[in-house]
Amino acid sequence: MRRGLDPIRPNVLRIRTQAGFTLIEVLVALLILLVGSLGMAGLQTKAQQAEMESYQRTQALVMLQDMNNRVNANRWDARHLNYVTTSALGGGGSITDCSGKSGAALDLCEWGNMLDGAAEASIGPCSASNGANCIGAMIGARGCVDYDATTEFADSTGATIAGTGIYTISVAWLGLIATVSPPAALTCGQNQYVSEAQRRVVTSQLRIAALGAL
User: Fold this and answer.
1) Under a CB-based contact definition with an 8 Å cutoff, are residues 153 and 160 in contact?
2) CA distance 172 to 85
3) Whole-number percent of the chain with pLDDT over 70
4) What distance in Å separates the CA atoms of residue 55 and residue 171, rounded to the nearest whole number?
5) CB-neighbour burial class of residue 117 (10 A; exposed 0-12, middle 13-18, buried 19+)
């Protein structure tokens, strides 16, 4: 008598085939998960970079406005060009002791310390002897105050009035990623960073009035 086909064997083969497909699906799922994780890590890195860039720009604008206020508040020194800097302040140097200074000299000293991070300390006091503790500024922050004598007003006789030209106040720092180089006319911090495409600059202009001199 002929024996019938074993009903168990096809089931065994079917189970093995299904197990093989399941393993492939797991590998594909793991690959997708890996790619997704890498994508999320990349997005998180870019988000952190954007947050840091925004923080640095905010800090730079605060420091820019600070010097604007100082120049406007001390117009005698401004008219006598005592705020003009021959080289950029800051740059990560040591904190300077500003005691004994006054007027524009005091303002520039304190502003330079702000650019070097004196506004915030990590551990212990931020002082001339503990400059490494000063972290309240942008990366490589520098500040410049320039004056354009060609923009001075003229009086009724045609003679120029000293101190009535345009002040340009600039704050530069190092950005995290390369973008677009600042205009060549903005020289504050120029060639002081990894590349010009990573140099960030914010500026403002102001003019000190000479009431009654025109």
Assistant:
1) yes
2) 14
3) 80
4) 14
5) buried
